[in-house]
């Protein structure tokens, strides 16, 4: 399912091509185990679930990176950090493990390259939905609507008024546990529509211009890094809930850019 790479940034073109190759690998390993009756599931110390598919996907990606980029570092959800370098691949082998376990098709691999802590290449691949999205710094964001179809460029919406916006909040529990539930409810009163699409799906809907705001708490860099270049290259803006750039701050707020400051202000109003 590797798509042609349209990159005007030559030094990232090879990295994007590799990220797409890694996504092919992740898709093949994970889809073979999706809805398997004998899928092995265990609980990590933080009480989140991990399946044999999560472990197998990350192992496969690490093995390929060891061949293709032996000098680069890796941060993965399942096997932690290896290498100490300015170039770091950040991997979530299956974003949406709970969906994967239940047979819900909204899950996928998140693969990013960060340079000096800034994500510059990102791929989100969801084989059960037959979808893939990618972006690299200075080269735009793209998707395919079905395997084998030609890529199309994507862009965020032009919605400029909060009253016309569609909001995805991911999870009520996250906002409640972070002490932000009142602020979320107040924000929901100001938008046109609110839903909880969840996981990588909400960010990709935003990058395609189908929703306008999404945010969440209790997230790690591997949950977010691949999403940053896709959203930003589609014309959006990506920060923490309190406005810090990047995937390193434990929360995320992505918008079409036009609405970002007003949403940040709205989330501060009741602080």
General description of the model:
The chain is of the alpha+beta class. The protein folds into two domains: 136 residues, Fructose-1,6-Bisphosphatase, subunit A, domain 1 (Fructose-1,6-Bisphosphatase, Chain A, domain 1), CATH 3.30.540; 107 residues, D-Maltodextrin-Binding Protein, domain 2 (3-Layer(aba) Sandwich), CATH 3.40.190. Helix content is 33%, strand content 26%. It has nine helices and 15 strands. The strands form three sheets. An eight-stranded mixed sheet has the order 4-3-5-6-7-8-9-10, with helices on both faces. It has a five-stranded mixed sheet with strand order 12-11-13-15-14, with helices on both faces. Strands 1-2 form a two-stranded antiparallel ribbon. Strand 3 and strand 4 form a beta hairpin. Helix 6 runs parallel beside helix 8. The longest helix is centred in the first third of the chain and has 22 residues. The chain is globular, with a radius of gyration of 18 Å. The protein starts with 9 loop residues before the first helix and ends with a helix. 46% of the residues are buried.
Question: Which terms summarize this structure?
Answer:
271 residues; alpha+beta; Fructose-1,6-Bisphosphatase, Chain A, domain 1; D-Maltodextrin-Binding Protein, domain 2; 2 domains; eight-stranded mixed β-sheet; 9 helices; 15 strands; 33% helix; globular; disordered N terminus
Average pLDDT, rounded to a whole number, is 91
Rg, alpha carbons: 18 Å
- First CA to last CA: what distance? 46 Å
CATH fold node name of the largest domain: Fructose-1,6-Bisphosphatase, Chain A, domain 1
Q: What's the number of extended β-strand segments? A: 15
Strand order of the largest sheet: 4-3-5-6-7-8-9-10
CATH class descriptor of the largest domain: Alpha Beta
What's the helical proportion of residues? 25-40%
Main β-sheet, in a few words? 8 strands, mixed
What does the overall shape look like?
A: globular
Number of domains: 2
Report the CATH architecture of the largest domain: 2-Layer Sandwich
Uncertain spans: 1-10
Q: What structural category characterises the helix and strand content?
A: alpha+beta
């Amino acid at each position: 399912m590797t798509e042609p790479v349209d990159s005007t940034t030559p030094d990232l073109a090879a990295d994007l091509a590799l990220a797409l190759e890694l996504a092919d690998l992740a898709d093949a390993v994970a889809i073979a185990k999706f809805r398997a009756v004998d899928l092995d599931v265990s609980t990590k110390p933080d009480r989140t679930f991990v399946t044999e598919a999560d472990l197998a996907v990350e192992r496969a990606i690490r093995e390929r990176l060891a061949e293709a980029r032996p000098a680069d570092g890796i941060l993965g959800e399942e096997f932690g950090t290896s290498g100490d370098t300015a170039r770091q691949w950040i991997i979530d082998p299956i974003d949406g493990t709970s969906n994967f376990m239940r047979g819900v098709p909204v899950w996928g691999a998140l693969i990013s390259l960060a340079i000096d802590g800034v994500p510059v290449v990102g791929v989100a691949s969801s084989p059960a939905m037959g979808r893939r999205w990618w972006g690299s710094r200075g080269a735009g964001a793209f998707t395919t609507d079905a395997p084998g179809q030609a890529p199309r460029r994507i862009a965020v919406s032009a919605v400029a008024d909060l009253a016309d916006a569609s909001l995805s909040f991911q999870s009520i529990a996250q906002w409640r546990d972070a002490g932000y539930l009142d602020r979320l409810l107040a924000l929901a009163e100001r938008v046109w529509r609110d839903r909880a699409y969840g996981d990588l799906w909400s960010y990709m809907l935003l990058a395609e211009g189908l929703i306008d705001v999404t945010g969440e708490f209790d997230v790690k860099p591997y949950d977010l890094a691949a999403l940053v270049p896709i959203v930003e290259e589609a014309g959006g803006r990506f920060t923490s809930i309190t406005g810090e750039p990047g995937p390193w701050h434990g929360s995320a707020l992505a918008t079409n850019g036009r609405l970002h400051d007003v949403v940040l202000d709205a989330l501060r109003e009741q602080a």
